[in-house]
Amino acid sequence: MAVWLIAAVMLMATVAPMRALAASVLVHIDLSDQEMQVSVGGRLVHTWPVSTARRGYRTPTGRYRPTRLARVWYSTIYDYAPMPYSIFFKGGYAIHGTTEIRNLGRPASHGCVRLHPDNARALFELIEANGKASTEIVIVP
């Protein structure tokens, strides 16, 4: 019995550090401020302006996990508009890059969360590296 207990403790000691390798990623989007903050392992690493839903549209609030990542994507609803580095989190809603960078910092989208393409790529690669299961997207009013 003692041998099994020692083996179990040794296994736990090896598995726990492997889980720690994938840091948790928190993507916090504030609709009022039109700002995204990205934290990794509890440490703030990025603060970026975003564009979310303009009048007549909505960006959903709540807590989500990424459901799908697409490095290259085109809107199937809005004239095949490019959505580079898409991080889908609720149905067709995604965080993605935009060519309309002049509108960042104010509501301008049909509901998605738009980022500068360089920032969208950085976020996409961060989530890709850490895993969708280790990422939480929080959107507040």
TrEMBL record:
Any Pfam family: YkuD
A Gene Ontology biological process term: peptidoglycan-protein cross-linking
Domain of life: Bacteria
Residues annotated as the enzyme's active site: H96, C112
Keywords: Cell shape, Cell wall biogenesis/degradation, Peptidoglycan synthesis, Signal, Transferase
Pathway field: Cell wall biogenesis; peptidoglycan biosynthesis
Gene Ontology CC: extracellular region
InterPro entries: LD-transpeptidase, LD_TPept_cat_dom, Transpep_catalytic_dom
MF-aspect GO terms: peptidoglycan L,D-transpeptidase activity; transferase activity
Residues making up the signal peptide according to the UniProt record: 1-22
Transferase among keywords: yes
Domain L,D-TPase catalytic: 25-140
UniProt similarity note: Belongs to the YkuD family.
PANTHER family: L,D-TRANSPEPTIDASE, L,D-TRANSPEPTIDASE YCIB-RELATED
Protein name from the UniProt record: ErfK/YbiS/YcfS/YnhG
